[in-house]
Amino acid sequence: MSADESAHDYAAANKKIFDKKAAENTAIPAELSVLARAVTGALLLTYPTLFDRTKTELLDFACGAGLVALELAPHVRSVLGVDISEGVVERFNERAAELGAAHARAVAARLDTGDGAPEACATLEGATFDVVLCSFSYHHVASIAATTRTLARFLRPGGALLVLDTLRRSDTAPVEEIPEEFRPAVAHVGGFTEAQMREAFEAAGLVGFEFGEAMTKTIMGREQTLFIAKGVSPQL
């Protein structure tokens, strides 16, 4: 990575781009809604015991408009989304209200500060969760190691971090296949390997690492295989 690349503020680039997209107030593409339902089904099928509508408290990092979080809402006690973009947070909360999901809401905050320390946010101060989820967003963060350390801090003992993203293949897509408007916000082109995810999870102190392919879908015109990685906060 060059000095220029390491100095690039991916979080700020994401905020700028997704605030702009939210301001356009366009309808959520049907393709993304279908994908979100498929992802939710895969999470529930793979880890059914993690989702209990009577007790599971879920944190969705980089929640966006809540495509996955609000699909999971009927299966958990509470949902808190967090995103750097105020625009998408507003859309999340609007959609939660439309769906009657009173136990789901989102707040704007920057958790990925680059050093693994979350910024001050009254809603998150001292908060811990049974499940922390990040879907389709790890490729946007500058350092998956720092972000994993940050997210691990929000887990209760025995709580699980779940990350869903694209599996890196030997024939990964060149940067040219990413829409030009999103390129400044994508820190990792082509996804991640199991080894990369294991290293980040274990460095964050998480145990019981698991990694598996979830599905293969055509996303943005390209066939991609999605994985789910899981790590658990050690019991006290």
TrEMBL record:
Against InterPro entries, the record matches this protein to: Methyltransf_Superfamily, SAM-dependent_MTases_sf
Keyword Glycoprotein tagged: no
Identify the taxonomic lineage of the organism of origin. Answer: Eukaryota, Fungi, Dikarya, Basidiomycota, Agaricomycotina
> Which Gene Ontology terms describe the biological processes this protein takes part in?
methylation
- Record bears the keyword Ubl conjugation: no
Which keywords appear in this protein's UniProt record, sorted alphabetically? Methyltransferase, Transferase
Q: Which Pfam families match?
A: Methyltransf_23
Q: Which SUPFAM superfamilies match?
A: S-adenosyl-L-methionine-dependent methyltransferases
**The protein, known as:** S-adenosyl-L-methionine-dependent methyltransferase
Q: Name one GO molecular function term.
A: methyltransferase activity
